[in-house]
Amino acid sequence: MTQNKTNILIATILVAFAAIMKVVTFPHSINPIIAISLFSGVIIKDKKISFAMPLIAMFTSDLMLEVFNIAPGFYGMGQVGNYLSLLLVTVLGFSMKKINPINVIGYSVGSSLLFFLLSNTNCYLFDNFNTYGTGIIGWANCLTAGIPFMKNGIAIDLCFSTLLFGSYVVLFKKSASKVMAN
């Protein structure tokens, strides 16, 4: 199978999986979208596909939440920031040159923390109800409120990153030093 066909197959399977997991596990949000963002940045050589994967997964799941009236799938400008945060996680993946346990753990935790910081900053910036207060104290309150989600997010992202990268190495039997993001 050519690299492009492999990319498209991997992308399709992961996008469908991510969208379904986000909807099925709502409101607990046990989903692989951040791990997929990292994985696509590392593995998928075609940058358009690597950026599209997490965006399509997130959009599809948000659309499903909205259409099936489970929850508001589209909720304003803060959501745009979350989509951009996924793109930055993908960019972070471009810098992982070798797939090994230390890198997968480090990049996975780094991705979780990056997304936490950016998404909670988004939440603070677009909070129309002044829920957290103003200034640096308000921002700190918003970050503090998100800590329980971050703890769960790190564990979920580590599990899915291990599954994705481990499966990729086993299925494609590539040595860790040959798998590179270009």
Structure description:
With 182 residues, the protein is mainly alpha-helical. It has one domain (3-172): Arp2/3 complex 21 kDa subunit ARPC3, CATH 1.10.1760. The chain is 74% helix and 0% strand. It contains seven helices and no strands. The protein has helices at residues 3-24, 33-43, 47-67, 77-94, 101-125, 135-145, 147-172.
List keywords for this structure.
mainly alpha; 74% helix; Arp2/3 complex 21 kDa subunit ARPC3; 182 residues; 7 helices; globular
Summarize the structure.
The protein is 74% helix and 0% strand. By secondary structure, the chain is mainly α.
Instruction: Give the fraction of residues assigned to helices.
Output: over 70%
User: Total domains, how many?
Assistant: 1
Q: For the terminal residues, how far apart are their CA atoms?
A: 19 Å
N-to-C order of helices and strands: HHHHHHH
